[in-house]
Amino acid sequence: MQPLGPQQWMPGAAPERSVNFLPTDPLLLLLLLLLPLAGWLGWIIGRHATARRSGARVTELSSHYFRGLNYLLNEQPDKAIEVFMKLAEFNRDTVETHLALGNLFRRRGEVDRAIRVHQHLVSRSNLSEAERTVALLELGEDYMRAGLLDRAEALFDDLVAMDAHAPSALRHLIAIYQHERDWHKAIGHARRLEKMTGESQAATIAQFQCELAEQSRQHGARAEARAYLDEAFASQPGCVRGYMISGHLFAEEGRWNEAVLAFEQAVDADVDFVPEILPPLLDAYAHAGEMDRAEKFLGHVVDRYHGITPVLALTDLYKKREGERAAIDFLTGQLRQRPSVRGMMALIDATMSSTEGEARENFLILRDLTHKLLEGRAMYRCNHCGFGAKAHHWQCPSCKSWGTVRPIHSVVSE
After folding, report:
1. What pLDDT, in 10s, does the model give residues 371-384?
2. C-alpha distance across the termini of the chain, in Å
3. Cα separation of 74 and 63, whole Å?
4. CB of 254 within 8 A of CB of 222?
5. Rounded to an integer, what distance in angstroms lies between the CA atom of residue 286 and that of residue 300?
6. Of 23, 332, 343, 174, nearest to 166 (Cα)?
7. How far apart are CA 241 and CA 393, in angstroms?
8. Is the whole-model pTM more than 0.85?
9. 290-313, pLDDT tens digit by residue?
10. Pairing between β-strand 405-407 and β-strand 388-389 as defined by DSSP bridges
């Protein structure tokens, strides 16, 4: 509604009398006196109407924004993108909207569109330094997702040099160097990140040094491999992977007693890695002629480790030394305490040799069923992201965390 002007309040044309005439009607006199006030109020009301229209515009913007966020939280990215695109067209100066839009494009795999959105933001001359830095970080992530690692590396290097969001940029650079397997650069930047944030990177740095040790070992450079292992132990004393690599180095040189000690130290450092350590450890025991030591050590491991792997190792040992009946009795007693499908398969295999006819056929059926239970079953799980795997990985293939993939302790898996 338009504000009422002064003329609309006039009761009619003034009578053609003396200009000095003052009406005697008190209501008419009051109206005449309020005319200036009415004009001023009309101006104020007009300004307020404009403000209301501006407020309505802000309300509309907020409505679009929160609707888009709602779609995003409800994992409806298509609808969220549609809302944010309208919002970006409505107000081209809204940095947050463009950032959200680019992020959504990247999450949907439309990396080219995400790059264009973030490049457009970076090219603006009216951005604050903080806004430009955030846009550059997002653009760097776009480049990483697109596989343009050289561009991403250059961009993050510039951010680190400017000390702008340096920790985030350093983390991205470390991820790039891990992908490229440039472990020296990864170590250098991890140490820089540790110094900058105060957050320990010791375990991660030790893994990088173990990667270097493995590379050297595979190329036959054992002295170089041991030098990297020394650095790994300096970063993380008791590094289980370091002990395992050391054991393999000793075994390759035929130094079996030293290999046994290294593998035993690996078990003591982290008993969860028993499934990975026991095969080379048992081999080292056999070559060193230390089977009594093997039996004693496995007995200690069975008490500490809840899975079936050391039990099966002891079962095989008892079978060789004391016969099949002793092995079956031991395994049967252990399965009562720690039920396991793998253990049951081993018990079926051990029992089948002494059965014939229909009983053997039944055992074969039971064995096939238990085998199918294990087929495709994840034996390991990442403690960080929940990724399941049939084989062990030092770095989780999903979340890229180090040392978080562990055996699953369950009736079926272990």
Report:
1. 887 787 888 999 99
2. 77
3. 16
4. no
5. 18
6. 174
7. 11
8. no
9. 999 999 999 999 999 988 999 999
10. unpaired
